[in-house]
Amino acid sequence: MSLNSALVKQQVYINGAWADADSGQTIAVSNPATGESIGTIPYCGRSETARAIAAAEAAFPAWKALTAEARADFMHKLCDAVMDQLEDLAVLLTTEMGKPLAEAKGEITLGVKYIRFFAEEGKRIYGDTIPSPWADRRILVTKEPVGVVASITPWNFPNSMIARKLGAALASGCTMVMKPAEFTPYSALIYGLVADKIGLPAGVLNIVTGDAPAIGEEMCENPAVRKITFTGSTRVGKLLAANAGKNMKKISMELGGNAPFIVFDDADLDRAANGAIASKFRNSGQTCVCANRFYVQAGVYDAFAEKLKSAMAEQLTVGNGLEDGVTQGPLINEAAVEKVAAHVQDALDKGGTLVTGGHRPDRTGTYFEPTLVTGASQDMKVAHDETFGPLAALFKFDTEDEAIKLANDTEYGLACYFYAQDLGRCFRVMEALQYGLVGVNEGVITTEVAPFGGFKESGIGNEGSKYGLDDYLNIKYSCLGGL
Ligand code: ADP
């Protein structure tokens, strides 16, 4: 399985053409599993971004004017071109991001599902006629694409985070300028390659890389951009939302989480342990919906800890994501490893017990062992700050009310999970949790057909599902008089 170098596109994509940064400067991209260099990307700033926005603005009227079916045809062709190279694209994704190859394939396939879903959903952008209070007038409500959409995306899902924004934008008739994360640019730039291949009209999709704050400022301040869609940290989301607000642009924000995972006395513990593995250790703990705090009821605390420990030993293998059987790739960079190590040390300093893991394995690359700590308490960093790595910390609780209170005791509100059998309890807890996504006896719940969005400081708006088009559309009321 070697990297197909034709897919390592080291230029940006503006108005249907490949380009370097105006300054000629580049940024290096490396493989987190080995530390080896993969290539470089252009270090663009405001001027290149402004050109990309101008191209998207120029392409907008013709793209908007196409029928939904014609846009869907382009989108399905784009998906076919991605699926034709699934193996190679998965190797590329694993090489720049680190996740195991099977997860990389799963991510790209999910990205395609988002685009195909929206391609069809675009045919169902219905309007309304409203009974008129005037005998001689009629009221018509239609929906129109907002215009140029600018997107900024993170490194942990370098394909699918883009796909679900791109799918919604293209289907609704918007054009797009996107900026992927510096660590994982190539999985984004491949969309330029496939756009070229299928003959997507120039300017409909543009991709810039480089100086994130400068690119973000141009996106927020350029009058042609009508919407900013961002997935990333709450810190950067707040910066962008404030700047977009000054210029009255629509925003969608998918931000950080601090997901609780509650195991009640009546839970199926085997199911809970397996769900915990999937929810906590997928992508080595680097997803914004990863379980971060495990609240386990006193009666099953020891039994659950034992089951989770065994499941970790049986199911988790650390290594280069390109190797067979590996489930835990490297973390994205050195800073990520240091954060996990700091959370583990803090937990142990404050009275936690190390059950398994806790160290960097003795190998090159930014790895950290899957780690289980019991005896966690609310004063620990892991209780309030997303670890974004392979640390499972188990907290003990006694009553249902206590669990709900602890789970909601955070400024975040993205995903949460709980395991219980009693139907009344399931409904009570489901309704009491202040989260946008609730997994009841399930540890992984993302799908293109369901909405994805956070409460509180985890964000604004929803992606995926029939709701995912709303943010890309303006509602227009027309009054037809003199009838
Ligand atoms: P993470 O912790 O996942 O890296 P970030 O919020 O830092 O989260 O990064 C998510 C995306 O936001 C990346 O594409 C990154 O380049 C971009 N980004 C970071 N800082 C800024 C900024 N000041 N303005 C615009 N984009 C930014």
For the termini, the CA-CA separation is 69 Å
Biggest sheet statistics: 7 strands, mixed
Number of strands: 22
**Residue runs with pLDDT of under 50 for 5 or more positions:** none
CATH architecture of the largest domain: 3-Layer(aba) Sandwich
The CATH class assignment of the largest domain is Alpha Beta
Query: How does the helix and strand content classify structurally?
Result: alpha/beta
Gist of the model:
Belongs to the aldehyde dehydrogenase family. This protein is about 40% helix and about 20% strand.
Structure, explained:
The protein is α/β, with parallel strands linked by helices. It folds into two domains: 5-255 and 458-477, Aldehyde Dehydrogenase, Chain A, domain 1 (3-Layer(aba) Sandwich), CATH 3.40.605; 259-440, 3-Layer(aba) Sandwich (Aldehyde Dehydrogenase, Chain A, domain 2), CATH 3.40.309.10. It contains 14 helices and 22 strands. The protein has helices at 46-65, 68-84, 86-97, 101-121, 160-172, 186-198, 212-221, 234-246, 269-281, 301-315, 334-349, 381-384, 400-408, 423-432; strands at 12-14, 17-19, 26-30, 37-42, 128-130, 138-145, 148-152, 175-179, 205-207, 225-231, 250-254, 259-263, 291-297, 353-356, 371-376, 391-397, 412-413, 415-419, 437-440, 455-456, 459-460, 473-480. The strands form six sheets. It has a seven-stranded mixed β-sheet, sandwiched between helices. A six-stranded mixed β-sheet has the order 9-8-7-10-11-21, sandwiched between helices. Helix 7 (212-221) packs parallel to helix 8 and helix 9 (269-281) packs across helix 10. The chain is globular, with a radius of gyration of 23 Å. The chain starts with 11 loop residues before the first strand and ends with a strand. The mean pLDDT is 98. GO terms for molecular function: succinate-semialdehyde dehydrogenase (NAD+) activity; succinate-semialdehyde dehydrogenase (NADP+) activity. Residues 18-476 form the Aldehyde dehydrogenase domain. Belongs to the aldehyde dehydrogenase family. Its EC number is 1.2.1.79.
